[in-house]
């Protein structure tokens, strides 16, 4: 009996054994089977961006820390808790970019993009880094696609275009029932009056809110509205609404944005407590939500004060961004978008060294003609190679042996019927194209 009971313990030990090397916490590999989904998001971003006249921009992963400390606000969670900071040997303080907008603004001024036609419309895609607790669709290294419109007047039509561009990506990816949650947080002038009312409300309820919100109400009051703690949600539900404190210009701006969204039939919900988590926003702020998903797929807003905060000048701007991982999670959950990698419908089988050598050159002929062809050069037997061709569901297999090389021919086998015939090597590409139609 004792020997029989010992077996399960040994099995448990095997199950708990971990690999010596694993991805760092919050980082993740994008495996080959997932790549088609990523390609689909990138392609949709390119299609939408180019159609709406956005130009691609890529900024470095490393930026000077000051751009984000000034631009995002020293009391934001990103700056206080989440930036990956690097001290160089020369004493420079760098960060792995936690977001794109400030980096794009830096590039706009550094390279004199204001000399080109305005507004300057730019789009991007790539990784960003935040040291936070990993959560659904969000990692410490995660990816974004986004749009920035810089250098125009503070015209609400551009707010609508920033929203519309991101929404069209979601639409092109066949994600349904997406709604834009939208609000206006006004300008510095009208927001000051609202913040006083908000501070008074939260100080009156100081015993009912979390520790973080007690600090935020003194340092960054609007951030209390972004808190997800349940007890803080109850206090927020009775808080004053910022829309009631907008001045006439900010009200008119917000009304126009909504009218433009109505015109292009983008569904929206006015979320009176939506503020976003960064200091540089003013007036329009928004987020995208899919039905059945509690986390935002992305968001954005207007940031007319960012360039002044960075001491670069005065510049009106607005932008939007989507979290690629979150978009892909929704695509997977829908169960409808399964995007297999475009498999090769032709498989080359070789028999012998001379056939392998000639087959290598033959593959290049197919490449030049735009026909995908697969092979298994590491296997030598006909049987093992045919098994691979069958497993990959090839439509045709091309069998090249020593005799065929000598005669200048190749055997074409229909994998479904088993029928095969010999075809001159010089005509094989043309013959395969004909049969694949």
From TrEMBL:
Give the chief site where it resides.
cytoplasm
The protein's matches in CDD domains, at most eight in alphabetical order, are given as: HisRS-like_core, HisRS_anticodon
Identify the GO cellular component terms for this protein: cytoplasm
Q: Report the transmembrane regions from the record.
A: none
**What one GO molecular function would you report for this record?**
ATP binding
Keyword list, A-Z: Aminoacyl-tRNA synthetase, ATP-binding, Cytoplasm, Ligase, Nucleotide-binding, Protein biosynthesis
Subcellular location(s) per record: Cytoplasm
SUPFAM superfamilies annotated for this entry? Answer: Class II aaRS ABD-related, Class II aaRS and biotin synthetases
Put simply, this protein is called: Histidine--tRNA ligase
Species of origin reads: Candidatus Wolfebacteria bacterium GW2011_GWA2_47_9b
């Amino acid at each position: 009996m004792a020997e029989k009971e010992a077996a399960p313990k040994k099995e448990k030990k095997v199950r708990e054994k971990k690999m010596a090397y694993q991805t760092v916490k919050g980082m993740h590999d994008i495996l080959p089977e997932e790549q088609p989904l990523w390609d689909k998001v990138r392609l949709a971003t390119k299609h939408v961006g180019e159609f709406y006249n956005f130009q691609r921009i890529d900024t470095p992963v490393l930026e000077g820390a000051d751009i984000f400390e000034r631009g995002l606000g020293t009391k934001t969670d990103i700056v206080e808790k989440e930036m990956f900071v690097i001290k160089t040997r020369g004493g420079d303080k760098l960060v792995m970019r936690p977001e794109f907008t400030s980096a794009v603004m830096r590039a706009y001024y550094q390279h004199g993009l204001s000399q080109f036609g305005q507004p300057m419309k730019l789009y991007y895609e790539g990784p960003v880094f935040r040291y936070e607790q990993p959560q659904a669709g969000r990692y410490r290294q995660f990816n974004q696609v986004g749009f920035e419109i810089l250098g125009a007047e503070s015209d609400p039509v551009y707010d609508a275009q920033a929203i519309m561009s991101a929404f069209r990506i979601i639409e092109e990816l066949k994600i349904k029932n997406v709604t834009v949650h939208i609000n206006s947080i006004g300008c510095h002038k009208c927001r000051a009056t609202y913040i006083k009312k908000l501070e008074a409300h939260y100080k009156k309820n100081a015993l009912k809110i979390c520790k973080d919100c007690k600090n935020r109400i003194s340092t960054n009051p609007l951030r209390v509205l972004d808190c997800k703690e349940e007890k803080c949600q109850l206090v927020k539900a009775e808080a004053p609404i910022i829309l009631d404190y907008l001045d006439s210009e900010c009200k008119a701006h917000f009304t126009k944005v909504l009218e433009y969204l109505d015109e292009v039939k983008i569904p929206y919900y006015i979320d009176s407590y939506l503020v976003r988590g960064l200091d540089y926003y003013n007036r329009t702020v928004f987020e995208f939500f899919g039905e059945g998903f509690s986390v935002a797929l992305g968001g954005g807003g207007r940031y007319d004060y960012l360039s002044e905060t960075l001491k670069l000048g005065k510049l009106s701007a607005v932008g939007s961004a989507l979290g690629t991982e979150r978009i892909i999670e929704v695509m997977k959950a829908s169960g409808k978008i399964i995007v297999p990698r475009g498999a090769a419908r032709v498989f080359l089988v070789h028999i012998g060294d001379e056939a392998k050598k000639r087959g290598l050159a033959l593959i290049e002929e197919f490449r030049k003609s735009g026909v995908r062809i697969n092979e298994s050069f590491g296997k030598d037997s006909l049987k093992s190679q045919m098994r691979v061709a069958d497993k990959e569901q090839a439509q045709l297999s091309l069998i090249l042996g020593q005799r065929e090389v000598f005669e200048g021919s190749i055997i074409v086998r229909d994998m479904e019927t088993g029928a095969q015939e010999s075809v001159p090597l010089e005509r094989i590409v043309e013959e395969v194209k004909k049969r694949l139609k």
